Amino acid sequence: MKKKLSLIVIAILIFGAAGALSGCGSDEGSGSETASTTLKVGASVTPHSEILEQAKPILAEEGIDLEVVQIEDTVTPNTSLVEGSIDANYFQHQPYLDDFNSENGTDLVSAGAIHYEPFGIYAGKTKSLKDLPSGAIVAVPNNVTNEARALLLLEQEGILTLKDGVDIKATTADIEENPKNLTFKEIAPEQLVRSLPDVDIAVINGNYAIEGGLDVKDALAVESDQSVAAKTYANIIAVKAEDKDNEAVKKLVEVLQSDEIKDYINETYGGAVVPIQ
């Protein structure tokens, strides 16, 4: 009798350990091969949450229950990931993640790149770049990585010149030539669309432009697909380092990089969101 009880205890321990290794957010107490795995992903509303919703039924067929947590700021997705209230996030590019890790001593990593959102220059009080007056007010994102990207786009359009070699580390202090004596107003990325009536032009992240009802086709200028930004700022699935090879995470990335999701992105966003090829 004691031997039988010992075997039962051993079996419970073995199956319990297997369940603990089955993936992020596995349903507790399932222990069966058909049990679903819950994967909780924090994402900005547009386009990230919308893209994830398209992936949800595909992942369900693979036994993965995708739970999308909509987050409207650019800090909470990473802090929530560090704290463990979500398993992954989808809202940022690698330079932004590197900056977050550097400032917070964290070790979040990319599990895969999904899409690229071209930055655009949008009209406020001034309706064309050729009419940009001397002393014009230009709104740019207020975080380091996105401000650099905005400045690179302004340089692309011949509006200013940056010091050699600064690239994605550029700040307004790195402007070498500012012939129109522009004034730069640093604003939270999610507030840039609302700032348009108060500035001459604004350089806006693709996702926030979409959320604010702007169309990339109406932008005064857009990042070149051959620019430093296009090669650097792909939006990624971010996870804790120990979860990079988790099977549920790998399946999520595989689905988001599939032709089915690429087609959805191309058909839905009209060039404002571009899938990584």
Walk me through what this model shows:
There is one protein chain. This protein is α/β, with parallel strands linked by helices and 277 residues long. It contains ten helices and 13 strands. It has helices at 2-20, 45-60, 76-83, 94-104, 144-156, 192-195, 206-211, 228-232, 247-256, 259-269; strands spanning 37-43, 64-70, 88-93, 108-116, 120-123, 137-141, 161-162, 175-177, 183-187, 201-204, 221-222, 234-240, 274-275. The strands form three sheets. It has a six-stranded mixed sheet, with helices on both faces. A five-stranded mixed sheet has the order 9-6-10-5-11. A two-stranded antiparallel sheet has the order 7-8. Strand 1 (37-43), helix 2 (45-60) and strand 2 form a beta-alpha-beta unit. It is elongated, with a radius of gyration of 22 Å. The termini are far apart.
